[in-house]
Each structure stands twice: as C-alpha cells, then as structure tokens.
Write a structure and sequence with these properties.
Blueprint lengths: L2 H33 L8 H14 L4 E3 L3 H7 L8 E3 L4 H19 L4 H22 L5 E3 L1 H30 L7 H6 L4 H35 L1 H11 L2 H14 L1 H13 L4 E2 L4 E2 L4 E2 L25 H21 L5 H27 L11 E2 L2 H21 L13 H7 L1
Antiparallel strand pairs: 1-2, 1-3, 4-7, 5-6
Helix pairs in contact: 1-2, 1-4, 1-5, 2-5, 4-5, 4-6, 5-6, 8-11, 8-12, 8-13, 11-13, 12-13, 12-14, 13-14
Length: 420
C-alpha cells in the first residue's frame, strides 16, 4: 500500500466517523421533523441541532442567547443574559475515541503509519471545523476556535491509543511496521525503572477500571430500584412519543457522565447538581435538579450507611496492587525490594488519581444559567481523595504476600545482554 492510498483510506475513515456521529442524532431529528412538524419547519434547524450535539459531545462550548419570550416562558431570570453550556455527553466523545482507535490501529499495521495518522487527523479537524461554521445560529453558537482544536484532540487521543497498542505488540513480537520505535524509547531506561513504571501503569489502570465498573453496577441498581419514580417523571413531563424518544437518547448520551458521578460519590467528594448542592456519602443536599427523569434515581436524603461506599476505592486499590505485585517482584531481581514496591504503590495511586480526576473533569460543566453553571464533581477533590485512598490501599497490597528472595540477585535478560 502506497502513501496516497493509505492517506485516502484514513481520510475516509475520519469522514465515516463524523458522518455516523452526526447521523445518530440527525436521523431521529429528521423523523421528528417529518412526523411532528410535517416538514413545515426549516430542516436546517435540525441540522444545526445535530451538529451542536456532536460538537458539544466532543468538548466544544455552546453560547446560548434566549429570546425574551422563551425566558419568560421558562421562568428563569438569569437566562435573559447569554450563558454557556459546557457539559459534554461523554457517550459522543467515547464513540469518537473508539472509532479513532480503530483507524490508528489500522494505520499502525503498515510501515507508512504516520501518513495515515496525519491524514485522518487533518480530515477530522477540517470536517469538524466546517460543521461548526454551518451550525451557527443567533440563539445557539458553538465556539469556533474550540471546534477546530478540542474535537481534534479527542480524535488524536483515540488515534494514539490504537497506534501505540499495535506498535507495542508489533515491536514485542518483531513484526514489520514498528521499526523498533517502542524499543528505542524503552531502551533509554533501566530494567528497574521500566518494571516500576509498568506496574504503576497497569495497577493504576486496573484501579480506574475497577472503580468505574463498580460505579456502573451501582448506577444500574439505582435505576432499577427507582424505576417507578423515573417512569412517573416521564409521564409528568408529557414529552409525547417523539419527545420521549429524544429525551431517552439524550440520557443515554449522558450515561457515561452519570457513571463518573457515581464514581465520584464512591470516592467521597460526590457531585453537584447545581451551585449549592452536594450529593456525597456523608451529605445529600440536592435542591432543584435538571428536568431529567433518570435523576429520579438520585438519593433525596442522607444515607445512614453511605460511608461504606468509601470502602470501594480502598478495596480496589488493594486488589490492583496485589494483581501487579507478583510480576513486579519477579522483575525486581536485585536491590532493595521494599522501597521499590512502595514506589510502585505510589505510582498506582498517581495514575489512578490522574485518570479519575480527568474523568471527573470531563463529566461536569455548565448546563444552563444561574445555579446550573456548576453540575458534576469537583475534579481537584476527586484527584486528591483518589490519590490518598488508592495509594494507602496499594501500599497495603504491596506489603502483603512474600517476596521471591531466591531470585532477587539474578540479573534480568536485558541487563545480562547489556553486559555481554
């Protein structure tokens, strides 16, 4: 495959990503245009709505200026001034990352992978920026500079994930295409450093995934346990069939956000549903909440045993350290083991804290004017609490078990190879 063919294929995949991402919203909106509005409304209104949802989901802020009649109808005086909507439905960003990872993986399977990566990224950036130029409206306007920058960063993250995974595997197995790229990076570090960093990355990733998995399970149980309340909120909202479908799709788009909010509750600081509110294991002060039926699952009072949720990050931090410890002890075949196990435990805490803090940051933002400018968790508190909890648990996990002292003075194969 030559450079031109690879670039065209990568650009086509970027085009498909954008088309599907917008189409998921545009198709039902177009059906709504046909069935409920009888083609009487300009279709460009629905195109702008789908484009705005796509851009918002990929991190672009929307500036909203409501007409006076709308402000009077909703009864929120703060809405008379322009405000920003910045909360991103993470399902959209997750879709972008997954599709980009597939493109990055396919490009990395060839020797000309940089060409494919650059072509896909440039195509995605130009398409997204072009869509932002067509999505502008006096009432709802996406940030143009963010449209050319932030969605591209999201797509680049997916490209990097897919490409690095394939290049790492190809380099480890000696396949063509990697050209020793990973080895040239790792050879700059000694075996001990690589072992500690590898254990920290693996353990931190296990901790993040474990806490998110528990949060997702707890969210599912909350939805099932409060299904009657959620159903009554649907009925009282009087969405109608089409409106109910759109409301459900919107809540599905925000499901990853809700999972992260539950994770924040398990970590300890909890999350806010508006300025002045607090939903945490030790305190629940909800106040008026956004009109989403799924928020009927939010606790309305303090939970007597809510503090038990704090055991989740502690237990998972311990298990993450116990999971990576055997391999780390095997790799540390020389020198003081205890201090290096402790260093790896701190590394697990750092990786988990950064990962969970970033998720908390991405999951929140402004939903509307007034008190709705602060919705979601505080990322700084999540990072701090996660670091303390996971690190303490990881230190205990690393201290458990027995070291294989019989192998501590045996040099690794990399070290032996260097001394020959």
């Amino acid at each position: 495959m030559n450079r031109t063919t690879l670039a065209l294929l990568a650009a086509l995949e970027a085009l498909i990503t954008v088309a599907i991402g917008i189409g998921i919203t545009l198709v039902p909106l177009s059906l709504l245009w046909a069935t409920d509005f009888g083609f009487s409304v300009d279709w460009l209104v629905f195109w702008r709505a789908a484009s705005d949802i796509w851009l918002l989901g990929n991190g672009v802020d929307l500036s909203v200026t409501l007409p006076a009649a709308t402000v009077a109808a909703i009864g929120i005086p703060e809405a008379s001034a322009p405000f920003v909507v910045s909360i991103a439905p993470l399902a959209v960003a997750l879709f972008t990352v997954i599709m980009a990872a597939r493109t990055g993986a396919r490009a990395a399977a060839t020797r000309l992978w940089p060409t494919g990566i650059v072509a896909a990224l440039l195509t995605f950036v130009l398409l997204t920026g072009g869509i932002a130029l067509t999505a502008g409206d006096p009432a709802l306007r996406p940030s143009l500079w963010q449209s050319f920058l932030i969605p591209g960063a999201v797509y680049a993250l997916g490209l990097a994930i897919g490409a690095v995974r394939v290049l790492w595997r190809a380099d480890a197995t000696g396949q063509a295409g990697a050209d020793g790229l990973v080895s040239r990076v790792t050879d700059r570090f000694d075996d001990t450093s690589l072992a500690i960093v590898g254990a920290a990355l693996r353990g931190g990733l296990v901790a993040v995934l474990g806490i998110i998995a528990v949060a997702a399970t707890l969210l599912a149980l909350l939805i099932l346990g409060n299904f009657g309340i959620i159903t009554s909120l649907y009925q009282s909202s009087q969405f109608g069939v089409s409106g109910g479908i759109m409301a459900t799709m919107g809540q599905i788009a925000f499901l990853p956000n809700f999972v992260v909010w539950v994770m924040s509750w398990l970590i300890g600081p909890g999350f806010a549903l508006g300025a002045g509110s607090s939903i945490s294991p030790v305190n629940t002060l909800a106040g008026p909440v956004p009109a989403l039926p799924i928020l009927g699952a939010v606790p309305t009072g303090d939970l007597p045993l809510g503090f038990l949720g704090l055991l989740v990050p502690l237990a998972i931090g311990f298990l993450a350290a116990a999971f990576v410890r055997p391999r780390l002890v095997s790799d540390l075949r020389g020198g003081p083991v205890a201090s290096r196990l402790a260093l790896a435990a701190v590394g697990i805490g750092v990786v988990a804290a950064v990962g969970l803090g970033l998720l908390a940051w991405f999951s929140g933002g402004a939903v509307g004017p007034g008190r709705l400018v602060a919705v979601g968790p505080n990322p700084w508190l999540i990072t701090l609490f996660a670091f303390v909890e996971v690190t303490l648990a990881a230190l205990i996990g690393m201290a458990s078990g027995k070291s294989d002292t019989a192998q501590l003075d045996v040099p690794t194969r990399r070290t032996a190879a260097r001394t020959r």
